[in-house]
């Protein structure tokens, strides 16, 4: 399935979400655990930055995303 890129109706820039589940249900970041949504062909549709890693930085227009760990459930 291709990564969805661009605006998603009903979710204007600046919209906030209560949690990852709400973000996923809105279609903004479908995976509930992965920090990056996308693939090598289409690129990244969204990145969730939660501050869990000190070497990741969100500078507003640039995000440094150094790690993606796989959670064991």
TrEMBL record:
GO terms for molecular function: ubiquitin protein ligase activity. Keywords: Nucleus. It is found in: Nucleus. PROSITE patterns: YDG (PS51015). GO terms for biological process: negative regulation of gene expression via chromosomal CpG island methylation; protein ubiquitination. Gene3D superfamilies: SRA-YDG. InterPro entries: PUA-like_sf (IPR015947), SRA-YDG_sf (IPR036987), SRA_YDG (IPR003105), UHRF1/2-like (IPR045134). This is SRA-YDG domain-containing protein. It comes from Mycena chlorophos.
């Amino acid at each position: 399935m291709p990564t969805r890129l661009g605006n998603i109706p009903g979710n204007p820039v600046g919209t906030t979400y209560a949690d990852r589940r709400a973000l996923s249900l809105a279609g903004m970041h479908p995976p509930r655990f992965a920090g990056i949504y996308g693939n090598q062909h289409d690129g990244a549709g969204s990145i969730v930055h939660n501050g869990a890693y000190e070497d990741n930085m969100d500078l507003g227009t640039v995000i440094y995303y150094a790690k993606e760990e796989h959670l064991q459930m």
